[in-house]
Design a protein that fits this description.
The chain has helices at about 15-40, 65-75, 75-80, 95-100, 110-120, 165-175, 190-195, 205-210, 240-245, 250-270, 270-285, 290-305, 320-330, 340-345, and strands at about 5, 15, 50-55, 85-90, 105-110, 125-130, 135-140, 155-160, 180-185, 200-205, 220-225, 235-240. It is an alpha/beta fold and about 350 residues long. The strands form 4 sheets. It has a 5-stranded mixed beta sheet with strand order 4-3-5-12-6.
């Protein structure tokens, strides 16, 4: 094969192929430097994480009853699961089941008995997380008024909250065969303290303690706890429409996981959680008493963590569910029993 020969500037003979090979080697050697310099000079911009907007309607105003939700939002747990949560405050006129039916919220908190009643009425709800495992509902009368037993409430004026909270008291009155005059009760206890009501509903973690600020000592109260009267119904649970679960299964699972994480953090850091909720109440211009909110949070722990659990498991037990269903069926408050596995979706919570 013929080899081309040329001379360099010094008059030395050089093979042309040798020159080509050297140029190629030089290009291969320095090309990574250009590539790296290009990458460094023009860094890739990080794409923002798109969060899914989600709405939650609570039964009542902001308070430590709902601390787990507020803490999960404050600590970024929902955001970590891809959720941009808006918490809608409840109140005396709030109706979470109607908000879900009208698709004005994705999730709502409700008593188990109320949710079963709504399901029986045609609203296909599904429980995706049971928070409160035992009843904290009670009725309170004043000593010295002739009311010492449940039967003594016959013919009396009983304060009552909106329909979402009425099922257990109505079921109790029907079972006991007593007729009462139900009067819509405002959040205030003024009417009760003036003698306008003979008994009022209360939550152990809230109104029971609040009444002491009205000057009514515990030893002046006659109390009827529903969990002692055969109506130990699990209460606050997380509900969504069946269609929401079917269409947005991953989002629903992530919402419940983030909520459980919020409650776990709350019980592990109660003072921090208390202060966060108090700041939210202040921002919403809701009167807040720190000692009362601390009492409420302690009692919530009592009714959420049962059987020596150290973390909320968010499980609705089949036995507890069927007890509530059978009670409502027997007393005629529902006509059909929803099947447990249709009504409840178990979501595994990482421990």
């Amino acid at each position: 094969m013929k080899t081309d020969i040329i001379k360099n500037i010094y008059g030395q003979k050089i093979c042309k192929q040798w020159i080509v090979y050297n140029y190629l080697f030089l290009i291969i050697l320095i090309s990574p430097l250009f590539i790296c310099n290009s990458v460094i000079a023009k860094p890739a911009t990080l794409q923002p994480v798109l969060l899914t907007p989600v709405k939650l309607i609570l039964q009542w105003y902001p308070q430590t009853q709902f601390a787990g939700f507020y803490i999960a939002k404050n600590k970024g747990f929902y955001a970590n699961y891809g959720i941009d949560l808006k918490i809608i405050s409840g109140g005396p006129d709030a109706n979470p089941s109607q908000m879900l039916a009208d698709k004005m919220a994705d999730f709502g908190t409700m008593f188990l008995s109320s949710a079963i009643k709504s399901y029986d009425s045609g609203l296909k709800l599904v429980n995706v997380g049971q928070i409160v495992q035992r009843s904290a509902l009670m009725l309170i009368a004043r000593k010295g008024t002739g009311i010492n037993t449940i039967k003594d409430l016959h013919g009396k004026r009983i304060g009552m909250w909106n329909e979402e909270f009425q099922l257990q008291p109505r079921a109790l009155f029907k079972r006991e065969g007593i007729k009462v005059n139900l009067i819509r009760q405002s959040p205030s206890f003024d009417l009760f303290m003036r003698g306008g009501l003979d008994a009022v509903p209360a939550m152990w973690y809230n109104e029971y303690h609040t009444l002491s600020s009205y000057g009514l000592d515990y030893n002046e109260m006659v109390t009827f706890f529903f969990n002692d009267l055969g109506f130990n119904f699990p209460e606050d649970g997380i509900y969504c429409l069946r269609s929401t679960l079917n269409k947005k299964s991953d989002m629903v699972h992530n919402f419940v996981k983030a909520t459980a994480k919020g409650w776990d953090y709350t019980f592990a850091h109660p003072e921090e959680a208390l202060n966060i909720v108090l700041s939210i109440m202040k921002k919403k211009k809701i009167r807040a008493n720190k000692s009362h909110q601390r009492w409420m949070l302690d009692r919530m722990k009592d009714i959420i963590l049962l059987d020596k659990n150290t973390k909320p498991d968010m499980v609705l037990g089949k036995t507890e569910y069927e007890f509530v269903v059978n009670t409502l069926l027997k007393l005629g408050f529902i006509s059909n029993a929803p099947v447990y596995y249709d009504f409840y979706k178990k979501i595994r919570i990482q421990k």
